[in-house]
Amino acid sequence: MDYQLDLDWNDFLQRYWQKRPVMLKRGFKNFIDPISPDELAGLALENEVDSRLVSHQEGRWQVSHGPFESYDHLGETNWSLLVQAVDHWHEPSAALMRPFRHIPDWRMDDLMISFSVPGGGVGPHLDQYDVFIIQGTGRRRWRVGEKVVMKQHSPHPDLLQVDPFDAIIDEEMEPGDIIYIPPGFPHEGYSLENALNYSIGFRAPNGRELVSGFADYVLARELGSRRYSDPDLVERDHPGEILPSELDNLRKMMLELVEKPEDFQGWFGEFISQSRHELDLAPPEPPYQAGEIYELLRSGEILQRLGGLRVLRVGDRCYVNGEVIDTEYLQAADALTRNFTVTGEMLGEALEDPSFLAMLSVLINSGYWYFKD
């Protein structure tokens, strides 16, 4: 389904993005759920799918992780089923993310879908990332508080919550309504009736993740092999002292690695194009030959990108799932990055080059793209 979002993006980015939460009533008019509760429950039975059940009875919280074998033990109130990265496994649901591409692709993470019975929720909590929550079938009440320093506690080892808060937004959401919540604003949602909710979350790497990821890249490529040197060393009174100038030189050695644009861009392209969740890879059997791919694209067949696949451009290079798309045909690689469906016309003259066709064959035979029909 082609979901049309009724939103003035320029106004939204200036007034709300990473600044204030906002309720968007009827952001999607005449909203139709892309998935049913039964389909969602079926996904949570699969080993590869990240899912959890959260319940609370008589003030006691419980969390269990999938895959699940049955839901027969659940009652009619106070529980939620949450399934991560549904866009990787259910193409109609992935379409919900398309209208939000006004935010750059590299910032977008995944689509989490929850099904909740009356009273179901995960309690008051805060997140360190931006999220759009779309109301599907049913009704749910959402409360959002002001961004203030709040202590977090764990009523269960797998659950992090905050204390009750005063609300600056307190609304019942109906199908098609959307609430946007920036990082750090406490919020709580609970169902008033059986309800589906769709949460589009955004990546926000912290400094530890960046340093760790870049260090792995440096080690894997044996960069930074230059050793510290001090040809102008002079005798000092205190042999145990490390001078500020020496610390500066050591810091400069480390910064030199980061400040090389080619290395930094190469690392970030690989780092940020990797998915944090399993992909529904299904390599074709038998594999396609380059000539078959050429004929299919020239005859009008369409290539579809795998759900959840991250395809990004950094400078003049494109990356897919942690790998560089190694080709001199930037326009063709850019078409793979920009579009979810790709035609032979979009790839242009690159299709006539055997080396590009060989590279494209590897991507298709890896299951990253597939022929739509």
Low-confidence blocks of residues: none
Major β-sheet strand ordering: 1-11-6-13-5-4-2-3
The biggest beta sheet, please?
A: 8 strands, antiparallel
CATH architectural grouping of the largest domain: Sandwich
CATH topology of the largest domain: Jelly Rolls
The secondary-structure element order is HEHEEEHEEEEEEEEEHHHHEEEEHEHHE
Q: Give the helix proportion (percent range).
A: 10-25%
* Class from secondary-structure proportions: alpha+beta
Integer tally of domains: 3
- Within CATH, the superfamily of the largest domain carries the name Cupin
Supply the CATH class of the largest domain: Mainly Beta
Radius of gyration from CA coordinates: 25 Å
Question: Number of helix segments?
Answer: 10
The 3D shape can be described as: globular
Distance between the termini: 17 Å
Number of strands: 19
Strand content: 15-25%
The whole-number mean of residue pLDDT values reads 96
Summarize the structure.
This protein has 373 residues and is of the alpha+beta class. The chain is built from ten helices and 19 strands.
Describe, in plain words, how this protein is organized in 3D.
This protein has ten helices and 19 strands. By secondary structure, the protein is of the alpha+beta class. It folds into three domains: 9-202, Sandwich (Jelly Rolls), CATH 2.60.120; 207-259, no CATH class; 290-371, 50S ribosomal protein L16 arginine hydroxylase, Chain A, Domain 2 (Malonyl-Coenzyme A Acyl Carrier Protein, domain 2). The strands form five sheets. The chain has an eight-stranded antiparallel beta sheet with strand order 1-11-6-13-5-4-2-3, covered by helices on one side. A three-stranded antiparallel beta sheet has the order 10-7-12, with no helix packed on it. Strand 8 and strand 9 (159-162) form a beta hairpin. It starts with 8 loop residues before the first helix and ends with a strand.
